[in-house]
Design goal:
The structure is a single chain. The chain has a single domain, classed as TIM Barrel, CATH 3.20.20. Helix content is 42%, strand content 16%. The protein contains twelve helices and eight strands. It has an eight-stranded parallel barrel with strand order 1-2-3-4-5-6-7-8, surrounded by four helices. Helix 1 links the parallel strand 1 and strand 2. The longest helix is centred in the last third of the chain and has 18 residues. The model has no long low-confidence stretch (mean pLDDT 97). Bound molecules: phosphoenolpyruvate. Phosphoenolpyruvate (PEP) binds next to strand 8. The site of phosphoenolpyruvate has 14 residues, from strand 8.
Length: 248
C-alpha cells in the first residue's frame, strides 16, 4: 500500500503571531505540493492567525500539545475541542521536550492520544531514545515500550489514521542526524511492533515519520526509505528550506 508522505513542521516555542503570519506568507509558494501532506504545528497563540494565513493553501495546521479534559479549572491549558473549533487538524503528543521538561509520562500521554481521537484530531505521537539508551543497545526495547504504553485502548482503525514520529533525542536540535540506516531500522521496528499489537494491515497503513535534524540536504535520502513516510522537522521548518524539504 502506498502511504502518502507527511511533512510536518514543529515550530516549538518560536514565532510571535505577527512573525507566524509573515512566515506563512514567505513559505506559501515554497511548500506547494500535490503529492505530500504539509502540516505546521504551531504554538497555541499562533493557531488562530496561522489557520487564517494558510486558508486556501495546501497547508494544514497542528497544535504542539493538548490537555486531557475538555474544559474547566485547568489554568493555562488548551483543550481538544478548543483546538478543533480553531481549525486544528493534527496534534503533536509526547514530544521528548514535553516528556523531559514537563514530566509527561506514557500513562498521561495515552490519555492525550485518546482525547485527540475523541475530538477528531490526528495525533502525531513521538517516541525516541536517548544517546545512553542507544549505546546500551536498548533502543528498540524502549521504543516498543513507549508505543505499547501510549496506544493502550486505541483501536486498529484509529492507529491506521494516525502518525508516529520516531525522534532519537540525541538528534533533535543538535545538527546530528541519525544515519539513514539507523532511522529506517527503528521506523521498520515500530511498524513491526504495530503489526504485533494489531495486524499487518494496520502496520501497513500507519504513517511513520523520522525527526531529528532533518534538513534540505538529508530529507530526500531519509524519505526514500521504505518505512519512513516523511518527517517531523524542527529548526528547518522556520525557514525557506522547509520548502525544499517538502519538495525533496
Ligand atoms: C523536533 O522538534 O521535533 C525536531 C526534530 O527538531 P530538529 O529538526 O530541530 O532536530
Amino acid at each position: 500500500m502506498a502511504r502518502r508522505k507527511i511533512i510536518a513542521g514543529n515550530w516549538k516555542m518560536n514565532m510571535t503571531p505577527s512573525q507566524a503570519v509573515a512566515l506563512c506568507a514567505e513559505l506559501k509558494d515554497l511548500v506547494k505540493s500535490d503529492s505530500v501532506d504539509v502540516v505546521y504545528c504551531v504554538p497555541a497563540i499562533d493557531i488562530v492567525p496561522v489557520v487564517e494565513a494558510v486558508k486556501g493553501t495546501n497547508v494544514q495546521v497542528g497544535a504542539e500539545n493538548l490537555y486531557i479534559e475538555d474544559k474547566g479549572a485547568y489554568t493555562g491549558e488548551i483543550s481538544a475541542p478548543m483546538l478543533v473549533d480553531a481549525g486544528v487538524k493534527f496534534v503533536i503528543i509526547g514530544h521528548s521536550e514535553r516528556r523531559e521538561y514537563f514530566k509527561e509520562d506514557d500513562a498521561f500521554l495515552n490519555k492525550k492520544v485518546k482525547k485527540a481521537f475523541e475530538a477528531g484530531l490526528t495525533p502525531i505521537l513521538c517516541c525516541g531514545e536517548t544517546l545512553e539508551q542507544r549505546e546500551m543497545g536498548v533502543t528498540m526495547d524502549w521504543i516498543r515500550l513507549q508505543i505499547k504504553s501510549d496506544l493502550v485502548g486505541i483501536t486498529a482503525d484509529q492507529v491506521k489514521s494516525m502518525v508516529i514520529a520516531y525522534e532519537p533525542i540525541w538528534a533533535i536540535g543538535t545538527g546530528k542526524t541519525a544515519t539513514t540506516e539507523q532511522a529506517e531500522e527503528v521506523c521498520k521496528g515500530i511498524r513491526e511492533c504495530i503489526a504485533e499489537i494489531y495486524d499487518a494491515a494496520t502496520a501497513d497503513a500507519v504513517r511513520i515519520q523520522y525527526g531529528g535534524s532533518v534538513n534540505a540536504g538529508n530529507a530526500a535520502e531519509l524519505f526514500a526509505q521504505p518505512d519512513i513516510d516523511g518527517g517531523l522537522v524542527g529548526g528547518a521548518s522556520l525557514k525557506a528550506d522547509f520548502g525544499k524539504i517538502v519538495n525533496y
